[in-house]
Amino acid sequence: MTVTIYDVAREAGVSMATVSRVVNNNPNVKPQTRKKVFEAIERLGYRPNAVARGLASKKTTTVGVVIPDISNSIFAEVARGIEDIANMYHYNIILCNADKKKEKEIRVINTLLEKQVDGLLFMGGVVTEDHAQAFRTSSVPVVLCGTKDENQVMASVDIDHEKAAFDAVNVLIAAGHRDIAMISGTLQDPANGFARYQGYKRALDEAGIELRDEYVRIGNYRYESSVDAVNYFLELSPRPTAIFSATDEMAIGAIHTIQDNGLRVPEDIAVISVDNIRMASMVRPTLTTVAQPMYDIGAVSMRLLTKLMNKESTDNMQVILPHEIIYRNSVSQQS
């Protein structure tokens, strides 16, 4: 049989109100009484009913997190940052995978809101009007994590993706490269796709390098799509001497494909990217990349959400975190 708060009160010899105060960390309970209640809870194996507590307080101490691809290691680091701060502020996390599909994202958002979460963190690509409508009708705060809406209305935490790409391409230009190709994400993605493409384009423009359409291929952020892109680049004349990849996973695919074709990285073709996933330091040669502070993006997003949920004052609703170039061995100075 389910152990109830009445059973605990009877076992401890106190009122149900006292048990409730202990369970809810109310400071107005004598230490001796608190100890007695906790001992009764442990003996009986009592677990408070979160649903009932939520109905009474109108809070569930639960936050919904929508993640684009649970198999992508970069999002694991974001989730870790979210979880650590959530634990610090005594919130539980419901993590939902949306597979980067708009219909599933909308469905998951609505499901989490129906579950009466106290707040929502959304990691995704494009914030469409359908997303915006779901967020607008939410009765709880929403923070965009690792993405932002183009209108800059919603609370968000991210890096400057255009500047990150600009800085990465300038590493190649400084190394003497002028035939620089890009493996981009979809240009419909405002951050990892379009913004990083714009950074690539601006770096070439400012260096007086002509943008060649054949030097840009669209990938899907995964290893396999870069294999096709690099095989295409290798057939060009002149072929690129350097490749900027929108993500590390595609960059690793590029390195392997270059090597599979009997060429060397960076001697024949240099490779640089954005993200700094763990595999970037494991591939050979190690990958020069722009590091996103993924843990910090998750942690700062969760902290911003706690402020909004608790109606604390917030100076900055659109937080931009710094990025950093990690120099490794996939780029070298040209002779």
Automatic annotation (TrEMBL):
<keyword id="KW-0010">Activator</keyword>
<keyword id="KW-0805">Transcription regulation</keyword>
<dbReference type="InterPro" id="IPR010982">
    <property type="entry name" value="Lambda_DNA-bd_dom_sf"/>
</dbReference>
<keyword id="KW-0238">DNA-binding</keyword>
<protein>
    <recommendedName>
        <fullName>Catabolite control protein A</fullName>
    </recommendedName>
</protein>
<dbReference type="InterPro" id="IPR006377">
    <property type="entry name" value="CcpA"/>
</dbReference>
<dbReference type="GO" id="GO:0003700">
    <property type="term" value="F:DNA-binding transcription factor activity"/>
</dbReference>
<feature type="domain" description="HTH lacI-type">
    <location>
        <begin position="3"/>
        <end position="57"/>
    </location>
</feature>
<dbReference type="InterPro" id="IPR046335">
    <property type="entry name" value="LacI/GalR-like_sensor"/>
</dbReference>
<dbReference type="Pfam" id="PF13377">
    <property type="entry name" value="Peripla_BP_3"/>
</dbReference>
<keyword id="KW-0678">Repressor</keyword>
<keyword id="KW-0804">Transcription</keyword>
<dbReference type="GO" id="GO:0000976">
    <property type="term" value="F:transcription cis-regulatory region binding"/>
</dbReference>
<comment type="function">
    <text>Global transcriptional regulator of carbon catabolite repression (CCR) and carbon catabolite activation (CCA), which ensures optimal energy usage under diverse conditions.</text>
</comment>
<dbReference type="InterPro" id="IPR028082">
    <property type="entry name" value="Peripla_BP_I"/>
</dbReference>
<dbReference type="InterPro" id="IPR000843">
    <property type="entry name" value="HTH_LacI"/>
</dbReference>
<dbReference type="Pfam" id="PF00356">
    <property type="entry name" value="LacI"/>
</dbReference>
